[in-house]
Amino acid sequence: MYFSPSCFNDEVKKPGDTVWKGHKNYDLMLSLQLGIRDSVGKHASVCRELRSSDFDPNEKIWTKFPAEGSKFTHPHQSAEFRWKDYCPMVFRHLRELFQVDPTDYIMSMCGHGGLRELSSPGKSGSLFYLTQDDKFIIKTVKKSEVKVLIKMLPSYYQHVCRYQNSLVTKFFGVHCVKPIGGQKTRFIVMWNLFCSEYPIHERYDLKGSSHGRKIDKPECEIDETTTKKDLDLNLVFRLNKYWFRELLKQIDFDCKFLEDAGIMDYSLLVGLHFCDNSTNQLHSGKSELYQIEKFLSGFHFLEAEFGNSNRINGCQKQPIRLGANMLARAERITTRSAFNQCGPGGGNHSIPFGGESYDVILQFGIIDILQDYDISKKLEHAYKSLQADPTSISAVDPKLYSRRFQDFIAKIFAKDA
């Protein structure tokens, strides 16, 4: 999962609790920050091409961090620990590819404000931490997930180099902390795709499956931080023809990469910012905001830089690219089953609309890409197939998962007429 609300709007309460001294995970946080500062700083000045050996699963660097400091490390207030850096040169190049400045990265991860821990772990039991500027997410992961990522790292690197508009998760590092006498904690650093000045008003985790894909919460407990699922979605997102074409093309490239890597169970995480949320005003037809986005996209600008002082419909204009700050119209459908009644291709004429239309800004990307179709998922598929339609469950083989996922994307996004 990814979390939001806003990188720049101080009026929006940021999620999570800051990990101060005395917090049960304070030593872990301090160890993470010390290790990242050391490893990023160590490789920031190294300028050389990547070698095949840099991708070797055994390319790991262990560093000991005694509390009193050493020849290679600074003294610190945490207990002594060991730090493992996985394929450090590869991630150094990835950070450069993703245009992350080493100094800015260290300031985000290791600034005086500390990290924020999300109060409830994810379904997998992982812990999530956010940097104070909301740019990066640190997620604790299982050893099996680290193995999957390191195994796919060569193809992942090639993929994101070739497709700079790829919607797959941006990874910045894989590390491990081992306190003396304690257990190992492995974690990955990722980009927070909801990091935007636009607060997220609704969010959806979409897999293209239906079995169990509805939130189990009473209406009174659903708020802006609730992540809804496939069966909760009753909107279609209309993009102009250029962005719609680019989206389907990139989804095809990304799903082919994930399928070849044997990955399944990933999601499209979608965040919606309603431009007229303050007045809850509905629109019919095309707004000025949407027309401007269409004009810009018509010139094939992948990034459209706007002045900070200009606002339209209450939305400050920001750089636009695939999956980030995308202006669209969200149209209400009359029945939820409409998604299942139409074929792929955007549902241009198949889905019955209710006429209500919202100007929205979309943030979206493909997340949770570290699950391969291992024996546990095969057993899950076999078990759930006895209870429900096998095609409706999330645990299916990567080829079927990819095809179903792409079909669903082509239904919830539509080309503007």
Automatic annotation (TrEMBL):
Keywords: ATP-binding, Kinase, Nucleotide-binding, Transferase. Gene3D superfamilies: 2-Layer Sandwich, Phosphatidylinositol Phosphate Kinase II Beta. Residues 22-413 form the PIPK domain. It comes from the Eukaryota. SUPFAM superfamilies: SAICAR synthase-like (SSF56104). PROSITE patterns: PIPK (PS51455). GO terms for molecular function: 1-phosphatidylinositol-4-phosphate 5-kinase activity; ATP binding. It is an enzyme of class 2 (transferase). GO terms for biological process: phosphatidylinositol phosphate biosynthetic process. GO terms for cellular component: plasma membrane. The keyword Kinase applies. InterPro entries: PInositol-4-P-4/5-kinase_C_sf (IPR027483), PInositol-4-P-4/5-kinase_core (IPR002498), PInositol-4-P-5-kinase_N (IPR027484), PInositol-4/5-P-5/4-kinase (IPR023610). Its EC number is 2.7.1.68. This is 1-phosphatidylinositol-4-phosphate 5-kinase. It comes from Kalanchoe fedtschenkoi. The lineage of its organism: Eukaryota, Viridiplantae, Streptophyta, Embryophyta, Tracheophyta.
